[in-house]
Fold each of these.
Amino acid sequence: MPAKAVLSGVHFMNGDEAIAEGAMAAGCRFFAAYPITPQSEIAERLAARLPRIGGTFVQMEDELAAMAAVVGASWGGDKAMTATSGPGFSLMMENLGLAVMTETPCVLANVQRAGPSTGLPTAVGQGDMMQARWGSHGHYELIALCPYSPQEAFDLTVRAFAMAERFRTPVLIMTDEVVGHMYEKVEIPEEVSEASRRRPQGPPDEFLPFKPDEDLVPPMACTGEGYRIHVTGLTHDERGYPDMSADAQDKLVRRLCDKIRLYPDEYTLWEEHFLEDAEVAIISYGISARVALRAVELARRQGHKVGLLRLVTAWPFPDDLVRRVADSVKGLVTVELNLGQISREVERAVKGKVPQVGVYHSGGRIHRPEEVLAGIEEVL
Amino acid sequence: MPVKEQRQAPPPEITQGRHPMEKYLRMDRIPHIWCAGCGLGTTLASFLYAVDDMGLDPDSLAVISGIGCTGRVAGYVRMDSYHTTHGRPIAFATGLKLAKPYTKAVVFSGDGDLFAIGGNHFIHAARRNLDMNVICVNNLNYGMTGGQVGPTTPLGGRCTTSPYGNFEHPFNLVHVAASAGAAYVARWTSLDVRRLQKAIQEMLSRKGFSFLEVIAPCPTNYGRRNKLGSGLDELRYYADHAVIKHGADLSETDMIPGQDFLVGKFVDSEKPTFWEMYQDKVAALEERSSR
């Protein structure tokens, strides 16, 4: 009897394993990766589980190949995913760009560790947030989600696949070593709806593979379906043929950005804690938001009106949301495991209307709640 | 000072014949970008004749290319075709093939793409014995970018980035392929159109990782800088120097300018593919869980 793709029930698992289970529940049947700490538990779980549910696992020769294989598998018709950490994330940037340009739905999980370079391979970091946004060359948009618990790692992976198909874009799960290795209760529902791909309508002869629907996303035909598509990383027209003109370039890149930019309600996820009466708002994401929540509790105990805006969607950055929260408080504290990346976006959105303090650490350990508390006191 | 008016003769009327393999080409993309005398046209034609002769359904094929002159093949075939990133067509094809195991994956790319930037993917795909057909058009240099030295440029070869002659030892591609575990390995020149077609038919009818090296002229870049004459002169050189020796010892297959070199079918073997090995594991798992 084949194993179950959706492992319904209550489990005790870590964030990495939850990502693997979320992927299979969402319909992922192809996973390619290269071993790297602290991602390995994702690959190991899928190596054990995918062959039992009709899927394919392949350990590639490097992360360049892993990402390229994922793009190829998606064009072969599979829901496809890879996972890595810092150094591998750098190598994946090339074919992440190919996925953006060819509008290939796929999911990439980055279990962040402390960099630059080999850095602290086994220890937490959040230093890849800007690389997630701008790491591949050229101008583009994509979606990046930041889970702060194993349960959310599962839930967001399921949603990542749905968003990848909806927008025909790579979706990043920007988690970190602590969430990846943290064991908690994970509840997997009885049924999980698989992400569905928008299929072409009408005869193959009339099909233009890169002609968008009204929402700017084109339906997708895959290998062997009779459409005889041509797919290229070159700037292309609606037929998919290379077009080396500046006009074609501008038209294509604007559409690739707008197809995501224009629909923030469909991917912007966040959580608000104690913001109703807050005078100071902490803005954070991933594991840092979990520490920040503890700091909020400590501050409240001391009588300070402090709240937390936890960003779940980091990219595209939720400017309006941050602006709304900033308008209701006297100061902001951004907490992250780098020396100021998302805080730049906060500054850009808020435009100096309220003071902002950054509570930074370059990684290797998570923040101590007292450090966040000190940041709160700075803006009070 | 008035500039003397440049008189241009009207362009000659193009009386284009129809290509017999037109049905497999994206005719709305023709004329192609390849130079006169290049070996790519004949290589592509050999592939299309092979497909036609075998009566293959074009929808059962996927053509995957990297970047470079050969990388443009994917843009001209009227099949599912993917023009990927530089060096990565084999990695891309790995994913595509494993998602669609019954599609015949044909990777068409150049020596620089497959053996410099993509060398790692090549040896590992051969090692895994992935069921794919890799056709490498080897023109001894990077043609698309203007004729730089590459991993197959012969010793002494003059290129834009080896202006005093190449001093790096070149790869012998068929030797690399065989050493890495390719199940089928052949080398022909772009003069050998019938043999190319036959080799491609053999590749398409066998399972496992098959590799074909096509030695091709690059009169615009490599040929010009090394005074090899026109594309036709290079073909004459092949006619004079290529010696057919099937099953030759791969250590004898080095190519040295001015000396005879071996062409032919060097490896034709059978061993289980990645997919077959994977399916065996899946079947064993199912049997164990049903017990």
Amino acid sequence: MTDKQEISLTVNGREHTLAVEPRRLLVDVLREDLGLPGTHIGCEHGVCGTCTVLLDGASVRSCITLAVQADGHAVRTVEDLARGPDLHPLQDEFWDKQGLQCGYCTPGMLMRAVEILEQNSDPTPEQVRQQIASNLCRCTGYQYIVEAVVAAAPRLRGEHAWDPTIPTEAKA
Amino acid sequence: MTAVQRSAPPVRQQDKTRTWVGKSIRRVEDPKFLRGRGGYIADLVRPGMLHAAVLRSPHAHARIVSIDTAAAAALDGVHAVITGAQAVELTEPLPDFGPDPAKLTWRCLAVDKVRYVGEGVAVVVADNRYVAEDALSLIDVDYDPLPAVVDPEQALQDGAPLVHEPMGANLAYERTFDFGDVDGDFAAADVVVRDRLRWHRSGGQPLETVGAIADYDPSTGQLTAHTNSLSFTSYLFMVATTLKMPVNKLDIHPVPAGGSFGSKLFATKPLVLAAMCSKAVGRPVVYLEDRVDNISNCDHHGSDRVYDVELALMRDGTMRSLTIDTIDDYGAYMQFGVGHHGNALAQVTGPYTIGSVRYRVRAALTNKNQQGAYRGFGSEVNNWMIEQMVDKAARELGMDPVQIRRQNFIQPAQFPYFIPTGNVYDSGNYDAVLDQALELGEYDRWRAEQARAREQGRYIGIGLITAQERSVFSATEFWFWFDEPGAPVTSMPESVTLSVDATGGITATLYSGAFWGNSPETMVAQLVAEEFDCEPQDVSISYHGSKGGLPATGPGGSRTTVMLAGAVEGASEKIKAKARRAASELLEADPEDLEWVAGGFQVKGVPQQRKSLADIAIMLHLFKHSFPEDMESGLEESRVYDHPYTTMPSADRKDLGVFYPFMGHACHIPVVEVDIETGQVSFLAYAAVHDCGTLVNPRSLCGHIVGGTAQGIGTALYEEFVYDDEGQLITSSFLDYSIPTAMEVPELRIGHVETPSPYTPHGIKGGGEGGRMMAPAALNVAVNDALAPLGVRVTELPMTPDRLRAAIRGAGAERR
Amino acid sequence: MKPPPFHYSSPTSVSDAVALLVEHADEEPRVLAGGQSLVPLMNFRLAQPGFLVDLRRVAGLDAIRHDGETLVIGAMVRQATAEKSPEVALGAPLLAEALHYVAHLPIRNSGTVVGSIAHADPAAELPAVALAMDAEMTAVGPQGERRIPAAEFFQGPFTTSLGADEILTDVRFPHRSGGHAFVEFARTHGNFALVGVAALIGVEDGRISSAAIAVSGLGPTPLRMPAAEQALVGAAPEGVAVSAAVDAGSAGLHPAGDLQGSTATRVDIARAYLRRGIERALDRALDRR
């Protein structure tokens, strides 16, 4: 029974039935079997959070989750955030605030941030900082990530639309 | 060697009216990363691609008696197993800029013995990484363990186990430089402050490891590779030599790097392993390190130094001279020699008018992974060392830490200022930086707060440091160590091609693997937009592979923006020259009567007589017969921009010449509180003011300052690659190697002073490393300031709870 | 860093799961709940089970319920679920507080309360909580069900008295009155702690009436601190008693030194955190937080 197991995953709203070796990590199945390279591998022992995806809406480390454990569940990855040409408000704000440099931790950060704002639609910067501490970023020192998540909150509450014509320094 | 002594480049008048340089535009790199379409090395898949995994040594030092690979090779899905001994047949030693590569030989896999935990012993090629790792566990290596040498000072003692027997000793390099009249200055000094300092090794640890895909085509003999490492495009012949192939058959394509911080600089080993495997199996092979590979075998550990330092001063606090005696623990190999100390020598006396310096460096070989590059490349250690000495001097002289620094500053009128080593500081205004930092950091308020807290038994410390931030290295620092260097190269160029298509759209082509988290595309887009009055987002950027590419060096030493700016400026001049001539033909006007205005050429004073760049471009592309015979079709120009300010070292090395001229400066003021019961350090505030010359994108520079500071916080408090007495690496994963989370990094207040460089386009200086060049020094000063009432002075980084508690216990500070 | 191959089954009942453990006894079978400790170990290939019994499809293991004066947490209850549960907040506030310190939310979203206890990491939070609360583990094996008191459960680092053919189906936390506190010292946020302190202190009529204190990170298993408890019980809830308890509790400690801290440092930190934990629990008992 290292034989492949048949599992069904709903990934970004699309249902997949596939046969996987039970040892395959969810991150590898997403990247290799389903062609979704946005979920990255950083440490493969659950510390860095680069591989964070949402499983039934809750953030998990896909590098320490066996794909079979996700059988029958819904997975959401960074590829599900933008709608065609339109970025998700979090993506807009990460861009606007320069909440990324090398971009490698960014998908995991974004998915964690989705969960943070779903659990608290109006967090303080301190709350965001504490919550986002689940994910490592080696480039930014986190400051602009925190700013981006805080800035996205009112947009996700539908309070005002983002105006891409206003440069960052003018928004301060 | 025939070297032409070059003098300083002409001083530029820096134009202050800029449209795009200086604006915090959104980075043009970002949309793909935000969508998860970064195209990192792990995202690239070649048809038929196989996966390689490396068997790591579990021993710090051992002879390899035998390796049995039969079971691994027989495993279903395994295509090849190559041992170190077999690799000797397939490859030459790896590219190496260090001393004596013939005796201190570095290869992609260990051959007769292993020299550190994690060193590669064999590589497996299999259908996928899972099977490759299965096969690794089936390889049977018979080791004969040898005593390990771990401590750098013990390594230099007689009788220590030898890391490389042909060297005859573990002292791989030693030299003492004397710059100026050290003995005279010490004799004239009133006070000598001495200390012994210890900086342990940490590393960049980008969240993406190093990897390469190699695809060897036996029919053409061409090797096509993609890798997130390698720069020094001009030096790729060294890789070709390692692979025993002609350099014109090697084509390396850069891939975005998921972070580097230096640690992906010229990381040749993964590429060589992948290439060797691809040649062996005739299929594309990817080798991508896992985290344990990266921590234990990345060849990019940071500096690991013991210092004995003496600072000579007058009683009024005037600094006269400095003697530095350092042992640097290089680990088992020395790919970049002691270049890290060249970095130190670029700014060895800090922002101060210290008149002379003696610098003794000894490089020790030990059973550890070797040093490479980590944000600062050794100059951050020097900053820390000087600032600890200045801080100690202030305490011993009973002086205010602000005043002792201020009164020794090089003054604005003294620039360009040559320091004793011969390097130049191009420009600066250190008082302005200090003044802004004192205000931004609310220095006086925190001093009052500190006094109140002390009365309540709380230990608050304010760390004030003022230090240098060198940028844009030249090649000489790699070899001025040697009286008769093997390769006294002098080129470290960067190139850009600008192509204007028939519709006037501009494409900029870059020639090195320039992206590793910095913003080369944004920088180029802003610089091109500045030149041609277009929108930055309308500039298209592409990266050229190495084959047929122009000379390029790539990022490192905070050089990218300055060097790209020079190349963009040069290519733009050429484009405009041709466009001017074309416009003069089209407008039937003298070229001298034309002026560039708002994206086109027009007759001076006659705006109606005008051709936009697009008007000119379509003519040049499609209407050859509208122009004189000698004008070629199209509108494309390149510029190879060489280092703008390098001078040769003197033969006696009393003067190292100019090799790191664009000198930034910063003042950091962290405020910390130490829980003396546990040794935990927490932040109350943090202010940082930097002067990196003219800013191109202020927000992206701020991002580098915060990010670098976060890494400096790691170096100061959390991060260390710890090898135990037997040479076992006991921090081989992120479980033990602790990287700061958002909760360990404070919110920074950031300020800028802009003192333009007189020698670079727009007056830009590099700024990618500044945060990490300052934070360790500032935090050590802060912690010592907090613990001063207990009589505790910490001289070793990282300042872990264990080290702080030991120091506090040692001082006899009572617990509750 | 990929897991080694293993055989796998996801049974739908506890009895089937036990039967699989018995059937595959010679393949070093392991039980998989959330996998947040086991899968990393497998990625490092430090754990190489030949057979994995995944509890995810076993019905009835994901319940949090009260059984009289006992809070019962099923084997598949995620830490994040327990953390948010009003039942846990009411019935075992010490557990609720400790859960905040378990790694980070993405780990707690998958990791289970019972799995963490079964993993028996001596530095982990939940085993110390189980010990302080005198929790009982419900183990089901081929011979049926038995209850193992926490005091008998933790045998050594990552070692418990659970049989190789047994499965922990739930952990039972008796309701405890008085003040609670969980405090811990970790070098970075969410990292493994050097020292954790779980304290439950009752105060009646101006005297400390009960005390249960357990620590993590200071020995091969979580440790109860009977000497500290004795120093508190019967004393006035004041600083003198706290100091006596800290002295008594730390007197016998001799934690092994390691990378994170020498023996002396760990004792220093243990003393500081014993004091902080006891003070917080006392404050809550006296409702003066």
